[in-house]
Amino acid sequence: MKKYCLALDLVDDPELIAQYEDWHRKENAWPAITKSITDSGISNMEIYRTGNRLFMIMETEDSFSFEGKAAMDDNNPKVQEWEQLMWKFQKPLPWAKNGQKWIVMDQIFHL
Protein backbone atom coordinates (compact mmCIF):
# COMPACT_ATOMS: atom_id res chain seq x y z
CA MET A 1 0.00 0.00 0.00
CA LYS A 2 1.10 3.55 -0.76
CA LYS A 3 -0.13 6.72 0.93
CA TYR A 4 -0.25 10.17 -0.64
CA CYS A 5 -1.23 13.53 0.83
CA LEU A 6 -2.36 16.32 -1.49
CA ALA A 7 -3.46 19.94 -1.09
CA LEU A 8 -5.69 22.33 -3.00
CA ASP A 9 -7.38 25.65 -2.25
CA LEU A 10 -11.00 26.58 -2.68
CA VAL A 11 -12.24 29.97 -3.81
CA ASP A 12 -12.47 31.88 -0.51
CA ASP A 13 -16.23 32.37 -0.57
CA PRO A 14 -18.33 30.82 2.24
CA GLU A 15 -21.27 30.10 -0.08
CA LEU A 16 -19.09 28.34 -2.66
CA ILE A 17 -17.31 26.39 0.08
CA ALA A 18 -20.68 25.21 1.44
CA GLN A 19 -21.72 24.12 -2.06
CA TYR A 20 -18.42 22.27 -2.54
CA GLU A 21 -18.91 20.42 0.73
CA ASP A 22 -22.47 19.56 -0.30
CA TRP A 23 -21.21 18.03 -3.57
CA HIS A 24 -18.85 15.85 -1.50
CA ARG A 25 -21.45 14.44 0.88
CA LYS A 26 -21.76 10.68 0.51
CA GLU A 27 -25.39 10.90 -0.65
CA ASN A 28 -24.39 13.32 -3.44
CA ALA A 29 -21.48 11.28 -4.76
CA TRP A 30 -21.60 10.50 -8.47
CA PRO A 31 -21.27 6.70 -8.84
CA ALA A 32 -19.13 7.11 -11.97
CA ILE A 33 -16.67 9.26 -10.00
CA THR A 34 -16.34 6.89 -7.06
CA LYS A 35 -15.94 4.01 -9.54
CA SER A 36 -13.19 5.88 -11.40
CA ILE A 37 -11.39 6.44 -8.09
CA THR A 38 -11.47 2.78 -7.04
CA ASP A 39 -10.79 1.50 -10.59
CA SER A 40 -7.54 3.50 -10.63
CA GLY A 41 -6.22 1.64 -7.58
CA ILE A 42 -7.21 4.07 -4.84
CA SER A 43 -8.51 2.01 -1.92
CA ASN A 44 -9.31 4.87 0.45
CA MET A 45 -9.64 8.63 0.05
CA GLU A 46 -10.38 11.29 2.66
CA ILE A 47 -10.63 15.06 2.22
CA TYR A 48 -10.33 17.55 5.09
CA ARG A 49 -10.79 21.32 5.07
CA THR A 50 -9.51 24.22 7.12
CA GLY A 51 -10.61 27.65 5.92
CA ASN A 52 -10.33 27.41 2.16
CA ARG A 53 -7.45 24.87 2.16
CA LEU A 54 -8.20 21.22 1.36
CA PHE A 55 -6.07 18.26 2.41
CA MET A 56 -6.54 14.84 0.81
CA ILE A 57 -5.21 11.52 2.05
CA MET A 58 -5.14 8.68 -0.48
CA GLU A 59 -4.27 5.07 0.24
CA THR A 60 -3.54 3.13 -2.93
CA GLU A 61 -2.56 -0.24 -4.24
CA ASP A 62 1.14 -0.60 -4.99
CA SER A 63 0.37 -0.53 -8.73
CA PHE A 64 -1.27 2.93 -8.55
CA SER A 65 0.26 5.78 -10.54
CA PHE A 66 -0.83 9.37 -11.07
CA GLU A 67 -0.03 9.01 -14.77
CA GLY A 68 -2.33 5.99 -15.06
CA LYS A 69 -5.10 7.77 -13.17
CA ALA A 70 -4.75 10.84 -15.43
CA ALA A 71 -4.96 8.68 -18.57
CA MET A 72 -8.10 6.96 -17.27
CA ASP A 73 -9.64 10.33 -16.34
CA ASP A 74 -8.83 11.87 -19.73
CA ASN A 75 -10.84 9.10 -21.40
CA ASN A 76 -13.83 9.26 -19.04
CA PRO A 77 -16.46 11.87 -20.05
CA LYS A 78 -18.16 11.73 -16.64
CA VAL A 79 -14.87 12.49 -14.86
CA GLN A 80 -14.28 15.38 -17.26
CA GLU A 81 -17.77 16.71 -16.49
CA TRP A 82 -17.09 16.45 -12.74
CA GLU A 83 -13.73 18.20 -13.06
CA GLN A 84 -15.28 21.08 -14.99
CA LEU A 85 -17.98 21.42 -12.34
CA MET A 86 -15.40 21.45 -9.52
CA TRP A 87 -13.29 24.22 -11.14
CA LYS A 88 -16.05 26.64 -10.11
CA PHE A 89 -15.05 26.05 -6.49
CA GLN A 90 -11.33 25.29 -6.72
CA LYS A 91 -8.30 27.44 -7.31
CA PRO A 92 -4.79 26.14 -7.81
CA LEU A 93 -2.12 26.68 -5.22
CA PRO A 94 0.24 29.54 -6.17
CA TRP A 95 3.04 27.08 -7.04
CA ALA A 96 0.87 24.77 -9.18
CA LYS A 97 1.99 24.35 -12.79
CA ASN A 98 0.09 23.83 -16.05
CA GLY A 99 -3.43 23.74 -14.66
CA GLN A 100 -2.62 21.36 -11.82
CA LYS A 101 -5.28 21.07 -9.16
CA TRP A 102 -4.30 18.78 -6.33
CA ILE A 103 -0.59 19.02 -5.46
CA VAL A 104 1.22 16.08 -3.87
CA MET A 105 2.70 17.12 -0.53
CA ASP A 106 6.17 16.13 0.71
CA GLN A 107 6.31 14.28 4.00
CA ILE A 108 8.62 16.16 6.36
CA PHE A 109 7.98 14.28 9.63
CA HIS A 110 6.98 10.79 10.69
CA LEU A 111 6.81 9.46 14.24
From TrEMBL:
Pfam family, one: rhaM
Coiled coil: none
Gene3D superfamilies membership: 3.30.70.100
SUPFAM superfamilies on file: Dimeric alpha+beta barrel
Taxonomy, superkingdom: Bacteria
Protein name per Swiss-Prot or TrEMBL: L-rhamnose mutarotase
Native source organism of the sequence: Ohtaekwangia kribbensis
